[in-house]
Amino acid sequence: MSLARVATRCRQGISASKVWVEAHLSPGLPTIALVGMSATVVKDAKERVRSAIISSGYRWPDARLTISFSPAGVHQAAASLDLPIAVAILIASRQIPKSLADETEFYGELSLDGRVLATGGLLAAGASRRDSPATLITPSENAAVIASLCHNVYGLTNLGELRSPQSWRRSHAVDTKHLRETKNAEVIQLPAGQDGLWRASELAATGGHHMLMSGEPGAGKTMAATLIKQLLPDLPQRDALETQVIFDIANQAPPAGRSFRSPHHSISIAGLVGGTRQATPGEISLANHGVLFLDELPEFSLATIEALRQPLEAGEIQISRSEHSHKYPAKFQLIAAMNPCPCGYRDTTTKQCRCSISALNRYNQKLSGPLLDRIDLFISVNRSKLSDVMSPQEKLHNRLQVTKYRVAKAHELALTRQGVENSRIKSGDLLTLCALSSTTKRWLEKTGERLKLSGRGLHRCLRVARTIADLSEQPEVTQHELREALVYRAHMGQI
Fold first, then answer.
1. How far, in Å, CA of 281 to CA of 123, rounded?
2. Residues 100/162, Cβ–Cβ less than 8 Å
3. DSSP 8-state code for residue 59
């Protein structure tokens, strides 16, 4: 009789809980039993592990084999359990030393010929907090990325390498310098001759404010969304790690900088906020610490748009299914665009609007008041003059660099003062951080009552005004900044 115990981790949202894989050999008919496991992917692991062990030149134990997973309350449904199962069996059958599992965690899927295959979702395990240092044994293709999160990471190519641990080499982190250089060298098209659009984009990028643009086709709304992406400050290391983990869970390549997601309006609710049977992250989580650009906003289904209301406020989303319940971060910046009407030419001088009253009513009903109340900036976009469009792009790129410097400086000022960007200042701290004088406070109260602002709308105006003051390097928010902030709510019929 022999017993082995091997450590691994199983993902729970963007974190990973420790799981022990135990193997027990006892006299009896040669059978294998899995205890404490219901997921099909792990039930099938016994066949993969058996073939991998035999193909790697090891001996399959001629005894009754029981494999247990604990704690039973942690849901384990990942192919990364193949390697720890194989290691537990080999230790229990005394084919590799027991000391190999001391202070060590194993991860990886096995092929039938014994190769350790690249496995998704391992970054959550690498980023998890540990009470004591541990050595991570992972597939060789995953090792370099995980090495940026942990110091002791070793990559395995095949199961046979367990015989000679002295030949293992520690993996080193991936150098992402070339990715940043590629991002900086990217050439984009910028909106020409639209000072109001540049100003609104600058405010949105500085404070992380949600923005809704309305304008006729070809007015430059999509270019403005790309402009905001370029203006956003560099992502802190902690936030970049969180973004990388989410993309790894979704089995997608992470972006070089801040994420920019632009889903089609036919997307489902599960695709936008997250879901499926495995409670996987959606577009709002993939856009975490980045931009979620929704073009043609009223063309999205009403239920899909309304699903954004809670994440816009909370900055996170709880995905619950029958067997899974995961919480994912969703601190995204919503940048939306729409036409003024279904045909796109209402209140424009380009063409005459041909929409009926009923079509306009159906179009406007797609955007509810509670959703619009959560947006900070509303701006109407007009077409650029052809003389501005034909001007050299070098001037616009020079303007981009100057604006990026202003945004980065004001953003750093806000982080130094309150630790978060201005759009996420808590309501209870707004008046203190805005440092309103008694005269300005009385003026704002009277103006807010006259304009019938809601409490949420008033707070959003204060956050935008705080961003305007930061761009001017002013410690106090005055009536001048508040007037400009109120103008951005006057668009789209908000006031």
1. 15
2. yes
3. P
* Nearest residue to 422 (alpha-carbon basis) of 377, 384, 386, 383: 377
Cβ–Cβ under 8 Å, residues 311 and 424: no
Q: Is the pLDDT of residue 369 over 80?
A: yes
Alpha helix ranges (H) inside 137-255: 140-146, 177-184, 195-207, 221-231, 237-249
Q: CA-to-CA distance for 159 and 172, rounded, in angstroms?
A: 21
CA atoms of 380 and 19, how far apart (whole Å): 54
| Residue 258 Cα distances to 232, 255, 311, 406, angstroms | 8, 7, 19, 18
pLDDT of residue 493: 46
The alpha carbon of 171 is separated from its chain's Cα centroid by a whole number of angstroms, namely 26
pLDDT at residue 173 tops 80: no
pTM, full prediction: 0.86
Spatial contact of 35 and 76, defined as CB atoms under 8 Å apart = no
Q: Determine contact, residues 92/53, Cβ cutoff 8 Å.
A: no
CB-neighbour burial class of residue 343 (10 A; exposed 0-12, middle 13-18, buried 19+)? middle
Domains and CATH numbers, the chain: 2-167 (3.30.230.10), 180-416 (3.40.50.300), 425-495 (no CATH)
Sheet bearing 377-381, strands edge to edge: 260-261, 291-294, 333-338, 211-215, 377-381
* Residue 65: strand pairing partners: 25, 32
Confidence of residue 228 (pLDDT cuts 50, 70, 90): very high
The answer to whether 218 and 383 have CB atoms below 8 angstroms apart is yes
103, 107, 110, 116 alpha-carbon torsion, rounded to 10° = -80
**Residue with more model confidence, 42 or 452:** 452
Q: What is the distance between the alpha carbons of residues 304 and 320, in angstroms, rounded to a whole number?
A: 17
Span 293-303, pLDDT tens digits:
999 999 999 89
Cα distance between residue 421 and residue 210, in whole Å: 12
Name the residue with higher pLDDT: 151 or 163: 163
Contacts of 361 by beta carbon, 8 Å cutoff, 6+ apart: none
What the block records as the tokens of 493 is: 């019929």
Helices (H), 64-165: 82-92, 123-126, 140-146
Cα 476–424–11 angle (5° rounding)? 155
Task: Look up residue 465 and give its amino acid.
Answer: A
